[in-house]
Specification:
This protein has about 350 residues and is an alpha/beta fold. The protein has 3 domains: about 120 residues, NAD(P)-binding Rossmann-like Domain (Rossmann fold), CATH 3.40.50.720; about 100 residues, Dihydrodipicolinate Reductase, domain 2; about 40 residues, no CATH class. It contains 11 helices and 14 strands. An 8-stranded mixed sheet has the order 8-9-10-7-11-12-13-14, with helices on one face. Strands 3-2-1-4-5-6 form a 6-stranded parallel sheet, sandwiched between helices. A hairpin with a 5-residue loop joins strand 12 and strand 13. Helix 4 runs parallel beside helix 5.
């Protein structure tokens, strides 16, 4: 089947993340073009990632690239224009956060894609982060009972590019940049289209030279008596911090996006599965997230399919498997004899269990 052709708008930090994701995890997509406001940067991005076409004119890219999808990774101020132009050019659109600079722009983007009968996706990665998604599944299964409070915090020392600090380019500060993640995740974990009763926020500029806020705390009161708290900061030293907390009347679950490989969960009644070999899921457990993905199964299968499609040698071969097996047999022999075993080694039996008895 022919691959889906993608054009990336932007060649900065987030565009590089999208590009790496396409290369590593989306084998059915091909990035065929990149746009950058600076042609030299677009050219360098294309060269680095082996993209055949690069542009500094968005209209030219839309006319010439023959892409199916426009992936918007440019400053917030340009999202609206890029989306509307893409829809008029009969392209599907995925747009990085925030969707637009204001509600009017958002409405026009949605309408343009509807009229063109093209899909518009809001790129909120926290809705797909494996660890956080596992927590959502716990909530959906009833593991923590009825949710009454949610918390999400994202903090670091500030964005990569100057335009984030310029209100006319970004539309706002840390709330626009990172608070959007929390609000989208609150809606996602509550499911459907939860109604908001009230919003209360406190914002300040405490560290950076900007007219925008660089520290904020926001409380969202949803109907059905759920309180959600978003803590966002560009003024936190020591690296990236991203974590969630879910409180229910029968349990609680905490997850840290960058620390550990599980969510810490307490469940009074227990739930479907904590981790391989765990005897119970009642009480405190370390809930593994996306176990298959975390352990490499999808990646190995995608790699082998790629080897078949492109006639390449697998990175891990039958010879590698044999070498491992030889070491296994040698280990059993050593356990049996109490001595070191040198390789090459040819066992005298076919069943390893017989070697050490």
């Amino acid at each position: 089947m022919e691959k889906t052709k993608v054009a990336i708008l932007g060649c900065g930090f987030i565009a590089n993340i999208h590009m790496e994701s396409y290369i590593r995890f989306v084998p059915n997509a091909e990035v065929v073009a990149v746009y950058g406001r600076n042609l030299d940067k677009a050219k360098a991005f294309a060269k680095e990632h082996k993209i055949k076409s690069y542009y500094s004119d968005m209209d030219q890219l839309l006319a010439e690239s023959d892409c199916d999808v426009i992936d918007i990774c440019i400053p917030n101020v340009a999202h609206h224009e890029a989306c509307v132009k893409a829809a008029h050019a009969d392209k599907h659109v995925i747009c990085e956060k925030p969707l637009a600079m204001n509600l009017e722009q958002a409405d026009e983007m949605i309408e343009a894609c509807k009229v063109a009968n093209k899909k518009l996706m809001y790129a909120e990665e926290l809705c797909f982060a494996p660890k956080y998604e596992r927590v959502r599944m716990l909530v959906e299964s009833g593991a923590v009972g009825k949710v009454y409070m949610l918390k999400q915090a994202e903090k670091h020392s500030g964005p990569h590019s100057r335009w984030f600090y310029e209100k006319d380019q970004s539309g706002g500060g840390v709330m626009m940049d990172m608070g959007c993640h929390a609000l989208a995740w609150f809606r996602w974990i509550l499911g459907g289209n939860p109604k908001v009763k009230s919003v209360y926020a406190s914002m300040a500029t405490v560290m950076h030279d900007t007219e925008c806020e660089d520290n904020s705390v926001t409380m969202i009161e949803f109907e059905d008596n759920v309180l959600a708290v978003a803590e966002d900061s560009w003024a936190k030293h020591g690296g990236m911090d991203d974590r969630i907390e879910v409180y229910g009347d029968k349990g609680v679950s905490y997850a840290d996006l960058f620390q550990g490989n599980s969510a810490l969960t307490y469940s009074m009644d227990g739930y479907d599965y904590a981790m391989e070999k765990a005897g119970t899921s009642q009480g405190w457990t370390f809930t593994i997230y996306e176990e298959a993905f975390n352990q490499g199964y999808p990646q190995e299968l995608a790699h082998f399919v790629e080897c078949i499609r492109e006639d390449k040698q697998p990175k891990v071969t039958g010879e590698d498997g044999r070498a491992v097996l030889e070491m296994i047999y040698a280990a059993y022999e050593s356990a049996k004899t109490g001595s070191k075993v040198t390789l090459p080694f040819e066992p005298k039996v076919d069943k390893p269990i017989d070697l050490w008895k």
